[in-house]
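A.,

Following up on our hallway conversation. Structure tokens first:
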């Protein structure tokens, strides 16, 4: 059995506001001190994000665990950006702890666009092919020396068994509300699917909120905090969580995904949706929709 790393407790998040960001910028980057600062709508969980002027964004980790990604992004995003077919954020400066804020932080270039959603995507198949092309280019970047899975990315790119405890808790919570037997079969199949051990680059959180659209077409990919080198199966989860059935087939063909990687990717999608479905609210409702699609497709989508 694979060695399973310890994810540890859920991070305790800090609160970061506009006044603190203005003070940090004023103390550390006085050339930008006069620019307006305002929160980014739907700025994410791992980082508090703020517009700085019209062309930049400040990203301040919300907990110590998330701060581990700052230096990684500073080091690797410029390397990746030069090799990718779509824009990605480019680090412009790295901030230090200060003004009572204890973590390193970043200023990146701002990329315009609407976050992806099924109703905003103009051509689902074209979107799927473009996304697969982006991930294929990412996987082609030289992986030597890249960041291996670890706490900096919550072990994305490592074994799915890392997430077995949370998957089992979600399955227990959903028993009687979903076909738990079928879900467990899919999960067990994913755990048994082997990776060839060849390290490649992956994004680690290919999700609707990190894919930007212009006119319904994919134009940029953001938030590389969970990126690294390892097993790229985690990036194929998007095939079930966002793509249509036709788009999923086009995505798999363009990315040339083998059966074992596809099974692991389905496992990543299943884990994500099980955990979300076990909660309440709008997120749970959407997760149940995706979960129904994962269960209905199996095993015909093998």
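Then the amino acids I'd put at each of the 302 positions:
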């Amino acid at each position: 059995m694979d060695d399973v790393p310890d994810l540890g407790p859920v991070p305790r998040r800090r609160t970061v506001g506009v006044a603190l960001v203005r003070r940090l910028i004023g103390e550390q980057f006085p050339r930008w001190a006069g620019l307006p600062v305002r929160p980014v709508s739907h700025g994410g969980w791992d980082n508090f994000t703020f517009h700085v002027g019209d062309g930049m964004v400040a990203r301040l980790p919300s907990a110590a665990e998330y701060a581990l990604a700052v230096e990684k992004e500073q080091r690797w995003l410029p390397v990746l950006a030069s090799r990718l077919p779509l824009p990605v954020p480019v680090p412009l400066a790295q901030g230090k702890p200060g003004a009572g804020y204890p973590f390193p932080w970043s200023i990146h270039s701002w990329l315009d666009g609407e976050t992806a959603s099924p109703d905003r995507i103009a051509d689902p198949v074209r979107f799927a092919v473009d996304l697969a092309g982006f991930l294929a280019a990412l996987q082609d970047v030289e992986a030597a020396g890249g960041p291996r899975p670890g706490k900096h990315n919550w072990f994305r790119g490592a074994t799915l068994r890392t997430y077995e405890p949370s998957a089992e808790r979600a399955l227990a919570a959903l028993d009687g509300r979903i076909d738990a037997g079928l879900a467990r079969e899919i999960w067990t199949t994913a755990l048994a699917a082997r990776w060839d051990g060849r390290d490649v680059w992956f994004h680690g959180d290919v999700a609707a909120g990190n894919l930007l659209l212009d006119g319904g077409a994919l134009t940029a990919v953001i938030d590389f905090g969970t990126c690294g080198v390892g097993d790229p199966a985690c990036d194929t989860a998007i095939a079930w969580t966002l793509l249509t059935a036709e788009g999923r087939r086009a995505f798999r063909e363009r990315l040339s995904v083998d059966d074992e990687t596809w099974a692991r990717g389905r496992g990543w999608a299943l884990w994500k949706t099980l955990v979300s479905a076990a909660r309440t609210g709008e997120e749970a409702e959407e997760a149940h929709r995706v979960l129904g699609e994962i269960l209905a497709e199996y095993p015909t989508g093998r």
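Strands lie at 37-39, 47-52, 56-61, 91-95, 105-109, 114-115, 200-202, 211-214, 217-221, 228-230. Curious whether your intuition agrees with the design.

B.
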